[in-house]
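Why does this matter for the project? Reviewers at the last site visit asked to see concrete outputs rather than summary tables. In response, this paragraph embeds two records directly. Each consists of the residue sequence and, immediately after it, the corresponding structure tokens. Nothing has been edited or filtered.
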Amino acid sequence: MPNLNETHDPKLTSWVESANQPGCDFPIQNLPFGIFRRKGAAEGFRTGVAIGDQIVDLRALHEARILTGKAADALATLTGNTLNEFMAAGQDIWSALRLALSRALRTGSPSEAQMRPLLRAQDQVEYGVPARIGDYTDFYTSLHHATNVGKQFRPDNPLLPNYKWVPIGYHGRASSVGVSGQSFPRPVGQVLPKGATEPEFTPAKRLDYETELGIFIGTGNALGTRIALKDAEDRIFGMCILNDWSARDIQAWEYQPLGPFLAKNFASTISPWIVTLEALEPFRTEWTRDANDPQPLPYLTSEQNKAEGAFDIRLQTLLSTEKSRAADAPAAVLSETTFRHSYWNVAQLVTHHTVNGCNLQAGDLLGTGTQSGPTPGEAGSMLELTSGGQKPLTLPWGETRTFLEDGDEVIMRAWCEKDGFRRIGFGSAAGTVLPAHI
């Protein structure tokens, strides 16, 4: 793997002991970025990097003048309350800081004594959305999800003719993107009941989640220019977990002819930490397309993209309810899948988004769309798991669900594992449904 460097060495350990524990999401080989503040404090957010169960306070690190060169230049962009300026600085700056942090946090580092006072315990902080999101585009990249959903509405022709030719997407609502721990009232809107000829105004009854990944743009492009496929990953700062909550009954009434609107824009939940593409390098894999399917048009394909354009990121979705939490029962695993099944990869999404001259900006968020695999246990939504509500799920503590009920908490986790490398985790994205405001 030509893109690996010393930061990926699986033998590296940290003087932050919790980072060396098996199963840790944030070993020294990860070093994801986010923003935080002391729990319950009336203060602004600060930028940080996760290491084990701790956070390196990057503003404090800048003020301590421990790092030099490009790494010091990078820290100068991280003194505010979002990551946007750092994201816009480009890959050289991102990599320089990640390398310097790796060296400073390693076992035996001469910087340990200076760095220790700059750590903050993760269980003593709260998180914010890590970037100022100027725009949010959600794609539809899982062939299995698109087919599963299409069969419910068009059994004889589940996929529309353009699906295998073009990465389908729509523009979502950036202002309602929240961070893990988000809670929101059940959405209210127009719904057409089965057999009715007129809609009613009501709380959504078919509330759902969608298991996705988020892609944060780093360096953008000028209006009227394109980002070529070979350059696309250089413009991606990193990835997170994304839950694109969906009101299926509102969606069914409103989505034609212009697509999702109020069924999607009431809330989206992301994990607080952005894992850089550099940290994900060991988990690249071949991107393949069935030989019987249409092959991507020239602007969306290259030999390098085929060879290593996919990432094997595992995704797990769990559910807890008011009843299960009262009984102190563990959350139920609903599904597990992997992003390697995606019909389109991250570089293709960025390239297609800009092919018409659309300008992306630092902090823009792209969603991958619901990620479902080829088996029933890999479905990334309740719409699929329950066949549109026709086959209720029985949870371990005896409750059943067709769609989400008030008090339900959906928890999503993601990680990468591979022989010969340290496990890299994304943390979690959790959100809770509250009763509707009527």
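We now turn to the second protein, recorded in exactly the same manner.
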Amino acid sequence: MRVPEYLFHSPVSVSRWAVFILLLSLPFAPRAAQGQSLGYEGPTGIFVTPLAATAASPAKGAGHPVIAYHLLAGGPVIGTWNTVSITEGFAKRFEVGYTREDHAAGNTAGLSPLWTDGLNIFHGKVNIVPENAAKTKWVPGISVGGIARTNDSNVGDGANGQTKTNGDIYLVATKVITQINKKVPVLVNAGVRGTNSSLWGLGGNAPDFSARTFGALAFVFTGPGKSTIILASEVAQQPQTIKLTDASGTTSAAFDIPTSIDYAVRVVPSPKHKLNIDFGILQAAGVIETIPATDSTAISYVNLKARARAAFGISYGF
């Protein structure tokens, strides 16, 4: 049985210690596997973390494009983020895509101007080991990929007229486990990424390139009229600090970014269509610490008011 990868696009979760998983029970027909779901930044996957799956395509040549729209209501400080994505699969092993991320400013004096107009996101992924390769049921799908963000002038860098480029390189493994209970398959998704961005670029650049882990947990139920309802949560470890610079380009402060969690509901109206709709609550960052570079003991606190924010997404494959 092949589990449809389009079921696993659900909003973000962040955990400081997590190296974790996506578990999925799936009670409907395998023909629904033709569907697709794009994450917030464009890759096939969860809200912001990728799956090993790639956008649907034939063994030779290109598939049909997949498009998506996402909204993150970040609150009165961070503002609202909108993304529009297009992703194309090739030869059952590759995908590439582009996402435009636009920002509507918040209304908190002194803080909201740190978030600027938006950024561009380019991504690519290659599946290096197909799931169940060599007809071995315990072999996970394994993929490597990358994400590049340009014109990312959020937080500090934007305040001084600077634009920054940052990105991720990741390795992800996805496995559907049916040996325990064929009627309730379990999907395990876990990976590691190297990144120099804070909060997927929403917080600008991180001071250094570091390894972060990710995964998720979801349960799927059959809804009315052969629809599917998925209850999910995702985890993705993040750099704890943001690179903040003053007008001279020197570091003036660091931020202690707390962990956050997201809860989501996905609705797949019909297994006959490559469509899914997602709703979620993101717990991103509430009160955070700021640590001035000139005096590490002079810690102050800033409330970003983004501890429980609504998120929405919709994906459609042609």
